[in-house]
Amino acid sequence: MPFRSATSTGDPERRLVAVHDRSRPRISVVVPARNEAANLPHVLSALPPELYEVVLVDGHSSDDTVAVARTVRPDIRVVQQTRRGKGNALACGFAAVRGDIIVMLDADGSADPREISRYVDALLEGADFAKGTRFAQGGGSSDLTRLRSSGNKALNLVVNLLYGTRYTDLCYGYNAFWTRCLPVLALDAGDAEQDKKLWGDGFEVETIINTRIARGRLKVVEVPSFELERIHGASNLNTWRDGFRVLRAAVTERFRPRPHRETPWRDLELVLDLTEPEAATA
Ligand SMILES: Nc1nc2c(ncn2[C@@H]2O[C@H](COP(=O)(O)OP(=O)(O)O)[C@@H](O)[C@H]2O)c(=O)[nH]1
Ligand SMILES: [Mg+2]
To answer: 191 in a domain, yes or no?
Structure first.
């Protein structure tokens, strides 16, 4: 995998103290994608115009995911994930971000890009973390099975009891937050391409994020969101296996020492693809 030197991507330490213009934040959209070539044209072409950057995290796709993304959106920044799973993909994408706000957007067409402004508004109005929910007025889903819905409710209850939170939709991946919250999330993008999946690399990542946000006492505002059906292909999620991973994450995260990663941007040089365009350097 090609590596890029830290100096050519700007000084990561300087970004930590950069003064954010809160009225005009730079919005970075992170899109994890594993074999989503058929869906990406729909998703990328529906993105709003005022974005600072779009970061696609490719999950060792065997289809044309990367080529299609570059065709539809030539300025897209492509990151290869270091290990396996959606959690690792998000960690790698977050490490590469250069904007002030990170929006997590699935590549399967289930998350409507027109909702991005709702999330950004919640952040501008004072939230640290804008959490999507399908279970508030104005939200909903045409992609949620009954089994998944009941499992989500039960896991939601466990988390709310353990953490004193009031989440209504624990297992939902459409969220946005200020980049400065990354040290609280403390996700580890890793430092080498490995053909394996570590704890936190799977779908449990959403629970890990939600519980770390809660333990870090960040301000969470829920945003109603309507989940659409995935357009093509099948979900990568296994309801029972991933449900147990979520439960395990909820319990272990409660009792372990609070993690903190001061400079997640250290990982930057390890995950950037050399062929990315230079244009986004601010
Ligand atoms: N890069 C990467 N993306 C993944 C991986 N697993 C899932 N995704 C992406 O994460 C998003 C949500 O996954 P999906 O399979 O739709 O799960 P569901 O929405 O929970 O049913 C989609 O954009 C997937 O392409 C992975 O291992 N690597
Ligand atoms: Mg999906």
So the answer is: yes
